[in-house]
């Protein structure tokens, strides 16, 4: 039945949206968390406005519902998961729809999973138009602290709902909370299998998304993205899959799970500097180029101390706002 739905959508033609020029991260410093290279947009000098109406030409995965109707994406992409604005939620997860508004499954996406945000690869290919996917994240914590624990998982399935490649993660890889990440690291090697995040300040897979780092604010609200997450191995796989015919490619699906805050399944000694605090975060998809700098030139090495830091922080304590 799902294959029939996919074929019907492809036959009708997917309505591609016009979108902004790809973001160029060539030569920018980054920190590697698991399979993700994470870039600080403030430190890179890149401004990505993301207020109401400013990300209408992107693919939105997660944003604030603010008591109103949920956002919709074009055919081939699940609609938007939402968290209510102004309501304090210590933890949110797409898997299980914990602390979020679940938009439900959309027709025309093979193997659409009720516990993930999903994208048909024909739709994704049309949206990216030859560029790489960049996952843009707003850190928007308020009240008690300005830091936030974040973990994500992304994978691809084929028409038989079998895993393509392996599971990819934004992960602190079991390091102490706030102390993980590798400057200009290798995002291809992390391979824990099919796992859920371990929690706790001393050993965790949750990455710390921080406030003030190396003189730049990263808790900059819902109107500007703070981080760009590039997944090199995903880029490589998509490059191969996009060579398929649309009929074959339409049977492949990208899945994503996002967890944020003080995981109730974990052993946090306190939720301070971990939990979601009133403001709403955003995750949306844009096109990017130049995201892989595995062997930096000498000029790039000077960025290592500044690089970010990913959806989480480098190795210094974030400075709390007054």
Task: Provide structural commentary.
- The protein has helices spanning about 1-10, 40-45, 120-130, 230-240, 245-250, 300, and strands spanning about 25, 30-35, 35-40, 60-65, 80-85, 90-95, 115-120, 130-140, 150-155, 165-170, 180-185, 205-210, 210-215, 215, 225-230, 255-260, 280-290.
- The protein is globular and about 50 Å long.
- The chain is of the alpha+beta class and about 325 residues long.
- It contains six helices and 17 strands.
- The strands form three sheets. Strands 1, 2, 3, 4, 5, 8, 11, 15 and 17 form a nine-stranded mixed β-sheet that branches. Strands 6, 7, 9, 10, 12 and 16 form a six-stranded antiparallel β-sheet that branches.
- Mean pLDDT is about 80; it is low at about 1-20 and about 290-320.
Quick check: average pLDDT?
Answer: 79
Strand content: 25-35%
Q: State Rg.
A: 18 Å
SSE pattern, N- to C-terminal: HEEEHEEEEHEEEEEEEEHHEEH
Total number of helical segments? 6
Reported for the largest beta sheet, the result is: 9 strands, mixed
Gross morphology is globular
Distance between the termini: 56 Å
Helicity level, as a percent range?
10-25%
